[in-house]
Amino acid sequence: MLFVCAQQAWKILELTNITLGEQTLEFLNQFDDFKRSIKHMADLGCGNGAHLEYWANMRDINEDGEPGRYLDIACHGIDLNCEHIKPQRHNITYKNHDLNTDTPMLSVKVDVVWCHDVMQYIYSPVEFLGRVNRAMTMGGMLYLNVPSTVSVLQHRFQNYTPAQHYNTFTVTQILYLLALNGFDVKDYYLQKRKFEDVIQVVVYKERDPLPYTTTWYSMVEQGIVNANMEEIIMQNGILKDQGLVTTWLDGTVQDYRWHTS
Fold first, then answer.
1. Residues 257, 248: contact at Cβ < 8 Å?
2. How far, in Å, are 43, 208, 242 from residue 168 at the CA level?
3. DSSP at 18
4. Rounded to whole angstroms, what are the CA distances from 96 to 71, 119, 156, 205?
5. Digit-coded pLDDT (tens) for 20-74
6. What confidence score (pLDDT) does residue 15 get?
7. Residue 261 domain-assigned?
8. Residue 261: pLDDT band by 50, 70, 90 thresholds?
9. Domain count, the chain
10. pLDDT given at position 8
């Protein structure tokens, strides 16, 4: 029943003028058991701190549906120039950090990593996700929002590249990078809506990173991919979007047999 109510809430959110990231935050905020399990979270590329402030202000929901006590999740904001931001709550810290060159990323292991609109600026996404893995607790949740600036409109291949965007992503590529870096691609959530240039992913840390030379066939042998992905790999030798089916947090199914844009 809770999940059905959450799905209905998502439909309402889609009608309002908020970003995909904000929609996802509102959706996750409905699950008290999930929120209570979080001790530390990090927003990588936190910008002005808006999403970090949301996490910091998360509260229990009382039986009457009203907000309860603050959960006081320890929230760590990281960006090139964010230490000037004045935290609105005591459980927020900001740290100036270059995600491409500075180490270590965090001084504590975190249960949630929020990474919204960042990976296009990263020099080496595969190595970056390895660093993210090592900063997380086992079973921790990673949220990614990445650009997919490749599309097919009116039977014409199109793409674009803004300045200082070093990467763009496809659905199959982001799944490969996540699998290589120890994130669960058997039970994951992914949304790439038709004709939208954004991919959203929610995955969980399952293991340490694999060698970056690991092939799809090796992942099949190790039981790392789900049945849908395995079938595509065994038929084609690669993971293709044709035949791929993914599900988002609200239960919406994305069937890439019918669109590739």
1. no
2. 20, 25, 19
3. -
4. 25, 17, 42, 25
5. 999 999 999 999 999 999 999 999 999 999 999 999 999 998 889 889 999 999 9
6. 37
7. no
8. low
9. 1
10. 45
Residue 12 lies in a domain: yes
Q: What share of the chain is helix, strand, coil (3-state, %, to 5)?
A: 30, 25, 45
83: tokens are 């230490």
Range of 161's domain? 2-255
Q: What is the DSSP letter of 55?
A: H
Name residue 76's beta-bridge partners. 42, 93
- Any domain includes 84: yes
| CA torsion through residues 192, 196, 199, 200, sign | negative
Closest CA to 170 of 98, 85, 238, 69: 238
24's enclosing H/E stretch is: helix 20-28
What CATH number is attached to the domain comprising 220?
A: 3.40.50.150
pLDDT of 13 reads 37
CA separation for the pair 90, 212 (Å, rounded) = 40
- Give, as one character, the DSSP assignment of residue 65: S
pLDDT digit string, tens, across residues 93-121: 999 999 999 989 999 999 999 999 999 99
φ/ψ of residue 110, rounded to 5: -115, 155
Cis amide linkage into residue 209, ω under 30° from 0: no
Alpha-carbon gap, residue 4 to 7, rounded angstroms? 5
Handedness of CA 118, 120, 107, 203 (dihedral sign): positive
258 pLDDT above the threshold of 80: no
- The residues near 261 (Cβ < 8 Å, ≥ 6 apart) are 151, 152, 153, 194, 195
Q: What pLDDT score was predicted for residue 194?
A: 80
pTM of the model: 0.90
Domain membership of residue 260 (yes or no) is no
Q: What is the pLDDT of residue 219?
A: 98
